[in-house]
Amino acid sequence: xxxxxxxxxxxxxxxxxxxxxxxxxxxxxxxxxxxxxxxxxxxxxxxxxxxxxxxxxxxxxxxxxxxxxxxxxxxxxxxxxxxxxxxxxxxxxxxxxxxxxxxxxxxxxxxxxxxxxxxxxxxxxxxxxxxxxxxxxxxxxxxxxxxxxxxxxxxxxxxxxxxxxxxxxxxxxxxxxxxxxxxxxxxxxxxxxxxxxxxxxxxxxxxxxxxxxxxxxxxxxxxxxxxxxxxxxxxxxxxxxxxxxxxxxxxxxxxxxxxxxxxxxxxxxxxxxxxxxxxxxxxxxxxxxxxxxxxxxxxxxxxxxxxxxxxxxxxxxxxxxxxxxxxxxxxxxxxxxxxxxxxxxxxxxxxxxxxxxxxxxxxxxxxxxxxxxxxxxxx
Length: 379
Hints:
By secondary structure, the chain is an alpha/beta fold. Helices cover 34% and strands 13% of the residues. Strands 1, 5, 6, 7, 8, 9, 10, 11 and 12 form a nine-stranded mixed sheet that branches. Strands 2-4-3 form a three-stranded antiparallel sheet.
């Protein structure tokens, strides 16, 4: 029986110079402009799960009697109860605490409009908001940025600017490396050399600003989930911190031995989210975090104790600014054979990107119609 929850919502010289600057500054990509943040400014974090995370394992519908018939050993008896129907994967203990304090919720049975099974195409649609893969060359968040107050800046923990952030507003990127810190005298001499260069001069200035924000991080952020959460909190906080941040995570393509692989992935995600919450401190109250993937996985287990590429999945929304609402928001489609999409996948009943855009607009006080228009501009 279907169960209904509330449903919301840059020639070779230039390249050489860029690489030299990045290496010297401890970043691995082009550092562009980032905003100066004031105390109390709203923050938004988009954590993308590349590889199609299994929403049916992350937020398990224990209240659906078909779940065990389809999944058997992939159903966790020690899953963490959320409400009378859904439970959270046991590796997400810290995140469960945020659910129960009203600082987290899930959107279930959500998807973009993509209905094929290519990771790359699906990720492109998730990041661009396009009607089809590779139809547009800007990202849905990149198109939102001009709607925010002047000076609002975006950053990505990535070697290059992710597609989701690409638009008219420059994006800073940061990835930790293990090279030794540059000599300050060398930096000063390079600044003098680049000062008269129309292309490298501005880029150098922005690189120095990025260095200021990331100074002191060293190599501590090259490790696991907790390190990444701490890094994210540092990039968001303080003078010059980013207002919109994107974090890329991989390893969610669990075709075999899913139970062990997913437990490790989710444990790292849990540590990331808890460390981000702790690292932001009071700024958590002004922060909204979206965790989403390109598509879900098949409802039934395959022959290698894994799951294959599916359709709908679950997304997480976290933050101190969440309004009151259900722990899990979903127009639940059911898991009986005739309720599955194509007879094999969780059927989508919620438009992930529309819901995310509405949440983004509400968080920053934007007119919803303007935000949705920016989303649809990619279609």
